[in-house]
C-alpha cells in the first residue's frame, strides 16, 4: 500500500493535546492571570511540535500503515461505498435470416459484459454472415438448415458455453444496451428474466398483435396462476444450467412462450424487467400474427395439460442438420 502524505496523516490521526499540559495551564491561570495567555501559547506550540514529530515518525517507520488503528478505522468506513459488481459470463444468441442491413447495428451495440456472441443463421442469401464476421471477428457462426426461430434458438442454446444466455433479435427492434440489466437480474437468483413492453414501451406493436398478446397473456395468467404483464416478447435471459429442464421442442416463434410456461411448470424463479421495443430497422418481419398466434395458443394449452418429463440434466444437444 503506498504511503499517505503528511497532510493525510494529520487528518487521520491528529496528535491530541496532553491532559497534563491543559491542567498545568489552568492551574497557572488561577495563580497568575497576566501570565496565563503566554503559558497557554507555549503549551499549544509544544503540542504542535509533538504533532510534527509524530508525522515524521509515522512516515519513517517500515511497517505498512494498514496496521495503524486510526487508518484501519478510516478504511472500514469505505465499506459504505458501492462496489464494482462482477457479472456472470454471458453468451448472446442472435438468430438471423437475411439481416444484412440490421445485424451490424446490433453487433456494434453489444455491451462489454457479453463474452460470447453466437449467430445462428438460417441460410441467409445476403451478406448477413459476412457483415457479422467483419464487425466481430470473434463471433461464432452456426448455420442451421432447418427453418424456424425455435430451432435456431435451441441450436444456439446447445452451442453456448457461458453461465447466462441472452436471446435477442437481429432486426434492431431490441436494444443491446439493455443486456446488462437482464444479466444483473439473473445474478440476483432468477432462472429466467423476460422483458416487458408493457412497462418499457413499444413503437412496433400493431393493434392486431397487441390484442393477440393481451388474450394469450391473460390465458397464461389464468391457467398457470401467474401475473405477467408480457408474454410474446423474445428478449430474455436465462441460466444455461436451467435450459435442459425447460424441455424445449418448439420450432417457431412459439418457443418464447414454451420457455415461459415450462419454466412455470418447473417452479423456476422468473422476473420481468422493462424493455423497449422499436420498429424493425430494415426489411419485413418474419412473424405471421395469425399463424404464429395459433401455435402459441396450442403451446399454452398443451403444456398445461401434459405431464412433465423427468428432470433433465446436462447440456442440450444441437438440432439436427445444424453446422457450426
Q: What do these coordinates show?
A:
The chain is of the alpha/beta class and 324 residues long. It folds into 2 domains: 6-80, no CATH class; 90-323, Alpha-Beta Complex (Spore Coat Polysaccharide Biosynthesis Protein SpsA, Chain A), CATH 3.90.550. The protein is built from 12 helices and 8 strands. It has helices spanning 6-12, 19-31, 36-60, 69-77, 100-107, 128-135, 149-159, 179-187, 197-200, 207-223, 255-265, 289-305; strands at residues 90-96, 116-121, 140-144, 164-167, 192-196, 236-239, 270-274, 322-323. The protein has an 8-stranded mixed β-sheet, with helices on both faces. Strand 1 (90-96), helix 5 and strand 2 (116-121) form a beta-alpha-beta unit. The longest helix has 25 residues, at 36-60. The two termini are 49 Å apart.
